[in-house]
Amino acid sequence: MTTTVLVVIAIVLFALVIFQLAKTTEFVAILRGEEKTHLESDRINSRLMMVFLILGMIALFWSLDYFMEDMVLHAASVHGEWIDSMFNWTLFFTGIAFLFTQIGLFYFAWKYKHTKGRKALYYPENNKLEMWWTVIPAIVLTALVVIGLYRWFQITGPEPKDSMVVEITGKQFNWMLRYAGKDGVIGANQYEYITEGNGVGIDFNDPASKDDFMPTEMHLVVNKPVLLKIKARDVIHDVGIHWFRVKMDAVPGITTRFWFTPTVTTAEMRKKTGNPDFVYEIACDQLCGTGHFGMKGTIVVETQEEFDKWAATQQPFYDQAIKGTVEEKKFAELSEKLKQAEEAKAASQHH
Amino acid sequence: MIDPAISPATHKVFTGDSTHHQDSMGEIHEPHNGHHEHHKENFITKYVFSQDHKMIAKQFLITGMFWALVGGLLSVVFRVQLGFPNQAFPILETIFGKWAPGGIISPDFYYMLVTMHGTLLVFFVLTAGLSGTFANLLLPLQIGARDMASPFLNMLSYWFFFMASVVMMASFFLPDGASDVGWTAYPPLSGVKESSPGASAGMDYWLVGMALFIFSSLLGGLNYITTVLNLRTKGMSMAKMPLTVWALLITAVLGLLSFPVLLGAAILLIFDRNIGTSFYLDNIYINGHALPNDGGNAILYQHLFWFLGHPEVYIIILPAFGLVSEVLATNARKPIFGYRAMILSMLAIAVLAFVVWAHHMFVTGLNPFVASVFVFLTLLVAVPSAIKVFNWIATIWQGNIRFTPAMLYAIGFVSMFISGGLTGIFLGNSSIDIVLHDTYFVIAHFHIVMGVSAFFGMFAGVYHWFPKMYGRLMNNTLGYIHFWITMVGAYMIFWPMHYMGLAGVPRRYYSFDAFQSFNMFGGLNQFITLAAMLVFFAQLLFLVNFFFSIFYGRKLKTQNPWESNTIEWTTPINAGHGNWPGELPTVHRWPYDYSKNGEEYIPQTTPLREGETGGH
Ligand code: HEM
Ligand SMILES: [Cu+2]
Ligand SMILES: [Cu+2]
Question: Which chain A residues have a beta carbon less than 8 Å from that of B541?
């Protein structure tokens, strides 16, 4: 409490000082004459413009260097490297534009300050100049668009045939995963079947769903493409995996997709980063309620052998959580209800 | 909203050269019977239900300042959590009670603060506060009209805004608090009451407040457009209008075409929430039960929202373009460079603003081909934006710059607009946006290019036209201190957010504890929070300066303190309702004859010299 009081007192005192300063300068201005005062404030402010430019540039490059290690995280996926390279090209061109325009702006502000007896140049336009600074940005932007879209269609195009598939479903506030079992097919699911026990509403009437398993951690195989089938059951979430440069919304009622190829295993990453506890994390990147900031998933990237070993230990979800429990009865009821509803609908359409 | 500076004595000062053109009085342009009306005014009609555009401008400005203060304060509070996570500040509990148990603000409260901060600043400050103030103040004065086309609708526009403000304010005091679903209010989060505490009553208040706000905006916009098209004084052709008028006109057109779409989106959302329709809702299972809604599409809302939302960002920045252009030319004592290109680029931006909305939706599962069209159109916007920047810089080149506080803000605006505009080029390229979407990089982008820039434009406007509003001058020293702290501080707050965004740090996170990927910026977050507090306190300097100067500022001695060409400076200091006591001025030339043929400035009302043409 005392610190608060002290802070408040300090702020009030500071404000009073500034206020007095302002009043005094105004009186001085009246005494000295407007013109002289204006010339002086023009001089001071134009110098500050130059100081701002120089210190600003120093701060810019210093901070870039200081944060470089924390912010530039080399992508651990194939398309991630394309994106990083595009980012760097864009940075190159915008960096030139940035330096050119900011330096021009502050340099002119410093150089052309009001001085006695000088006149400004009456220079309302120059069509040629304006044409150049229309055409050059247009060309650069076209180049960026062309590269960007070329990559975009590769990234969003169909996944390779040998991709593995993982279903990921968002709910407030965690992720649920589903892998195909031995049959290699993820069974059907439907929101009508969702219960607390059957979180993604698996349709157990579909034989393909009987061997699906639902691990708590996502396991991926290094250098093997993976397709994420992305769903949500309550509000919009977003699967964000920064290391892989992956981001895709999870929207209730819609299945979205994103495929990518991880290139660095978790073990390699632990060595590379020097962090023995390193894990790939899935973050929710779309505001989904008050627990949004804790909606985390984790990923292990490993070799094919390691993956196979892990997959072999996974029990089918049906055996583990449904079979012989109340959930099985609940599912049967829901299934019956749904069938009746469908029959009623079909009947009403027939006459 | 009290204006004691108006003294009847000053009404005599009138020097517009109106003697040559008696005819301008009898024009159809008279919205009402001229300037005599203000004699009958009482307190209520003059200060509260005023129909004088100048008073309405002040009402918008002061209401906007109130919201800026509230909105800014909200951000300081949530920055405390980000800068000093989980650290107890008992004073927070004293002030906010159950929202900050143990002196740590709760996640519910955090999301409510973030949501209302965004809503208030985007709509109530930078839309109503900015357009409302300067369209009202400047349109009639700069085109030579006695008032708006419909002073009554104009008054209604303010009072709808006021009602919207009351509703938004009231929502803070609901048991579950104000809306907490983000300023973009995406359903199903905003469409299902049980999805979040603020998605219950708070969201209904939010929607009603926004609907009232949209009415206000539409009434204002219609009026601004009609006024500019019909009430220009003699000689004021479109090609002689100051860029402020062009900018405000284009802003109004954008608003008129896009706000109704948001109104539609909001109404459908109200239906989904309250009468069981399914425009946006489908297959939802929440809190242990399934909802009956079927067949809606959550993404539809995003299309509707951003169809307004993107033009909205230009609705915010275009007035600032206009104000800054005017202030730069006046204080550089040079014509604005490339007047025609400035208008054309604003028109191009306005047209393109309607066809880029889906760049906010690249990762919603949008069809990749559709996305590619939006990439192309989005990056096209950078071209007219670049033209504007180059032209502003060329305007001060070889100038004779007077560093008034307004000029400082205008230069600061250009710097900010460059910094923030360039990052748009990263975001507009869908492949790169995969990485940057919904990270702090986007926060940095739009705060710099829109938030800070538009505020700088607004400050430039207020410092520049304060003498026109109140007949007094603001204190320059305070203005300089205010500028330099704000300029340096704003960069300190927002620039480093790019770095966090590059590391993938998501926006709208209450805390980064859960993730090892995002928890390395603790020191930086603290730095940003301290900078935010500094900048917030610097704004108090502005407020003190503003209100103190209304009552005690130095009285204006000349009608035209900045030696400006535009015709608002030919009205008397403290002009009454009707603006010009005599006839309306006649315009003979464009507004940018500064330093032409050895003359410091040549007002628009000065007849052409031998051999001169009306343009340049
Ligand atoms: C060079 C021109 C610009 C381009 C190419 C551009 C591009 C973009 C893109 C692609 C996004 C979406 C990023 C994302 O969410 O992942 C974005 C966000 C945004 N931009 Fe820009 N922008 C430009 C200029 C502006 C201007 C002039 C303003 C306002 C004055 C503005 C305001 C915003 C806002 C408010 C958002 C974020 C909205 C939100 O998600 O809450 N942008 N911009
Ligand atoms: Cu989520
Ligand atoms: Cu946009």
Answer: 15, 18
A11/B537 touch (CB, cutoff 8 Å), yes or no: yes
Q: Which ligand gives the minimal distance to the CA of B457?
A: 1
3-state secondary structure B180-199: CCCCCCCCCCCCCHHHCHHH
**3-class secondary structure, B105:** coil
Q: Closest by alpha carbon to B547, among B65, B169, B71, B74?
A: B65
Contacts 24+ apart (CB under 8 A), A320-326: A320/A213, A321/A197, A321/A198, A322/A197, A322/A198, A322/A204, A325/A197, A326/A197
For atom 10 of ligand 1, which residue has the closest CA? Answer: B428
Per DSSP, helices labelled H in B333-399 are: 339-353, 368-396
> Is A49 in contact with B437 (Cβ distance < 8 A)?
no
Question: Atom 19 in ligand 1: which residue has the minimum CA distance?
Answer: B446
Residue A51 near residue A43 (C-beta atoms within 8 A): no
- Each residue's pLDDT tens digit, B128-167: 999 999 999 999 999 999 999 999 999 999 999 999 999 9
Q: What is the pLDDT of residue A118?
A: 84
Q: What is the pTM of this model?
A: 0.93
Q: Answer yes or no: is the C-beta of B382 below 6 A from any ligand 1 atom.
A: yes
Residue spans per domain, chain B: 51-601
First to last CA, chain B: 41
- Does the Cβ of B528 fall within 6 Å of ligand 1? no
Amino acid identity of B539?
Q
Closest CA relative to residue A89, chosen from A139, A43, A147, A172: A147
Confidence of residue B615 (pLDDT cuts 50, 70, 90): low
Domain boundaries, chain A: 164-342
B273 and B191 Cβ atoms separated by less than 8 Å:
yes
Are B450 and B313 in contact by the 8 Å Cβ rule? The answer is yes
Neighboring chain A residues of B438 at a CB cutoff of 8 Å: 238, 240, 247, 285-286
SS3 category, A289: coil
The bridge status of strand A237-241 relative to strand A246-250 is antiparallel
Q: Which residues contact B213 (CB under 8 A, 6 or more apart)?
A: B123, B124, B128, B160, B161, B164
Q: Is the pLDDT of residue B1 over 70?
A: no
B523 is written with which tokens?
């020191």
Q: Which of B108, B107, B104, B83 is nearest to B95 (CA)?
A: B104
Query: For the segment B204-261, what is each residue's pLDDT rounded down to a tens digit?
Result: 999 999 999 999 999 999 999 999 999 999 999 999 999 999 999 999 999 999 999 9
Q: A15 falls in which pLDDT band (50, 70, 90)?
A: confident
Fold of the CATH domain B51-601: Cytochrome C Oxidase; Chain A (1.20.210)
Strand partners, A281: A298
User: Of A2-11, B438-447, B465-474, which range is least confident?
Assistant: A2-11
DSSP state for residue B394 in the 8-state scheme: H
Output the CA–CA distances (angstroms, integers) from residue B225 to A30, B220, B257, B261, in the order listed: 43, 9, 12, 19
Question: B514 vs A293: CB contact, 8 Å cut-off?
Answer: yes
Q: Does A71 touch chain B (CB under 8 A)?
A: yes
For residue range B18-56, list pLDDT tens digits in order: 333 333 333 333 444 444 444 566 777 777 778 889 999
| Burial status of residue A277 (CB atoms within 10 A of its CB: 0-12, 13-18, 19 or more) | exposed
Query: Which among B252, B27, B35, B53 has a CA at the least distance from the CA of B152?
Result: B53
Instruction: Report DSSP letters for B274-332, one per residue.
Output: HT---SS--S-EETTEE----S--HHHHHHHHHHHHHHHHHHHHHHHHHHHHHHHHHHH
Architecture category of domain A164-342 in CATH: Sandwich (2.60)
Measured from the Cβ of residue A191, the count of other Cβ atoms closer than 10 Å reads 18
Selecting from B296, B425, B510 the residue whose C-beta is nearest the C-beta of A94 gives B425
Residue with tokens 């802003």: B251
**Helix pair angle (B53-83, B133-143), 10° resolution:** 150
Given this model, what pLDDT does residue B390 score? 94
